Model the fold of this input.
Amino acid sequence: MVYSEETIRDEVFDKVLLYNGTNCPREEISSLREIEELEAKSYSENQNQHIHINIRKHLISCAKAISMNDSKIASELIKQIRKEASPIGDGIQRLACILVDGLEARLAGTGSVAYHQYVTMQVRTIDYLKAYYMLTRVSPVIRVSYHFANESILGATGNASKIHVVDFGITHGFQWPSLIQSLAKRKYGPQILRIIGVDLPRPGFHPAERINEIGRRLENYARSFGVPFEYQGIATQWDSICIDDLSIKDDEVLISRARDVSADRLWEASWSSYKVVGRESKRVWMTRVMVVLWGVWKQRNAYIFRRQCKPPWLLARDIKEETEMWLKCCRGVAILG
Done:
């Protein structure tokens, strides 16, 4: 594995990660619409439409053959799919290239090897940023979630002098430059911001390479905006982290953020406990989960569309009351049934 110095910050990073009045120029929307129209036109052509139908049919048939351990038919279908798929084709053809790799790995029993090659593959942050930028142009969900989270942090911290953020699964740290920018604009001056980025170590000789690169980038943004800043990167297995590693201080407002992997782990733990409880408890469990998700979703929409923001304690109280109401309804239905 070859170590290469990444771009810490340039105009591309600023354009994507900072608020600039409008992060969605009209000319970019027009170009995206042109791309969509070209894709739609391409799909409407009989030849491409026929290829798409064949790809879908062959992918499904191949998966069924593999599940039935029919390696001969599966191998023939994989060859056919590779003829129809293309890494430079339209969306369906590009997706088929990825799916057929997975099917082939499953057939050959080399899934673990393929996964290891995937996780050790070095993707430059600037390339990831460009893909992220295109995604935010098509769908605002990620950018809106970052904005909502940052506004919640600003509301929760108020005029506190020190803010301590612990980001479990910091990945590339794309959320934090805009928070630094917002802190610099506060009327009573920027607060001291301390971020601890936690992520899994990268395979190879530089396990903390990316997480340290994130720190250098955030330090650059903090310096340019005049925000006092401290950063600590922790590249380790999450289960090995203890409270002392986080250096929590009494005079700081502590913000904890957990993404992707931890959410999956929490869900798996919750699901494991769900599977062993009785029927009535399962109904209660599912009710609580649905009400919490629904409550958070309503609050998110209220903030985005009506600029209404409840403090966390009030949101928690409302969710608790609504949960109790739903549980009473569930018990009533069970009695009537």
Summary: The beta strands are 162-168, 192-199, 229-235, 253-258. Residues 261-280, 332-337 have pLDDT under 50 and may be disordered. The longest strand covers residues 192-199.
